[in-house]
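Here we describe the complex-level prediction in full. Unlike the single-chain runs in Section 2.1, the two entities below were treated as one system.
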Amino acid sequence: MDRKREKALESPDYLSWQYSNEDGQKTEGFPWGPHKVPVYLDFEGVSISLEKCGEGLSYRREDSSGKMEKTIIAERGKLMLSPVEPFHTPVALSNHLLIELENPVMLKPRSNHNLLVTFPLELAVAFSSRKPEGNDVFDIFTLSRSKFTLYGSIRTGLVCKYWKSPVYEDIPAVNPLRQGVMKIEFNNQLAKWAEVRKVIFSAQGMKIYYSPHLVSLKSTVKIYSEVTAETAFIDQSLQGGMSKGLEMFSARFLKLPGRTIMEEGY
Amino acid sequence: MLDWLNNPIYGDVTWFNLAISAIIFFAALILSKVMVVQMRRTFKEKMSQENLELMTKIVSYGILVLAVLWIMPTLGLEPSGLMVAGGIVALAIGFASQSIIGNLISGIFLMGERPVKLGDQIIIGDHRGFVEDINIISTAIRTLDGLYIRIPNEMVFTSSIINFSLNPVRRLDLDIGIRYSDDADKAIEIIKNLVEEHPLTMVNPPTYVFVDDLGDSSVDIVARIWTPTSEWYTVQRELLWKIKIAIEAEGIQIPFPQRVNWSGREDG
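The structure predicted for the assembly as a whole is:
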């Protein structure tokens, strides 16, 4: 990674979030993770607050679309902010994400190659307590653009969340509130060239990691035939020192996290 | 004191036999209810509601049939005897309950063919609504205005069915008429942008917006938009009005029907 890009990642002054707690402390990078109550956050036109109100806690979120308020009946706990799988807004009607590559990728016969793409994010607000129930997500919203697309035929196809991404060799400097960076390990098992235009990933087993400046995923794409490929996730962060995000979809019944077979081309 | 229990009712069947049979039958009834509740609780999140309902019905009816077969000898009825008499009985039942048998057989075929599922929005004959229950004899639907309609399965089987929910996506056609003096290309561009911005319109299959007809009073533009099936009404409700506001904001108007009347004399 060149020095200029590394510097951009370290100090992303293109982001306009402001963060303050009751002591007025400032923070660098986006403050994912747990926060003591009361907490007030302003970022990208969104205001979030969680403060004591009588016996309980009062949560507020305001953005251009309106205002939302919730009362949380709990004595103590923290507000947890985490990036989550992009499948809850505007309506939860798909468990698959289709990423269309802006430029198709040509893979050599019987080769492996790693590339990076971006993916959309949703932000989950959870109430974090020491109780065994753990984190209770009570609000999910997104700053990414939402679209849907169909993979396959109108009769039997799969409705997927849609995202179009450039292909990168190095980690791009993207806004970690709107986009994450996914490393894809391509494996062409064919004895000829393979052209990849799109990849589909399942919500199950999406292992999202976050740091103040980066949200990441790691995945594999195996090309089996001219129309068949298999995608899956790897439970690893892209950089050191990253924390694991909340998982809204579990992969309990799957041997391989997020395994998806693409049978209608890639 | 309970000697009367041994008094015969008919043949060798006593009141005791009858009581035992009743106890077995009610025990089976309770067992089937308990099994249904337990299965719903256990498999609720592990299988589709439709398959779960089918499985619970099979188990529930299965327990009752076994119980009946069990108590038949106690009541002096030999199942083997019934088998011999089955042909005659079947003939009699066939004549007596043609429609019930027809509905039953149609129900079995419907469960195999599965043209509709629970929750699907369908039209069967003149009835439009959501499928609430698929039974062995009848299918229940809830109309869009909240009425309950029970349709015999024979009618479901022999009617043409339109299922709005079967395919994952559905096309929405919006017709927008503009004045002949307006710029149709500009109107098309505005409509395309609005469709593109809407989060519930599909990227693929693509949207087509074009001049469909040169009408009597307007240039008719049609927008063919694909949406996820479940969101079809939402998109229709939100987009049409947004299109109207957006094109009017650009000075394009939706015309009223017009007719030019010529009157006077042709002097030739």
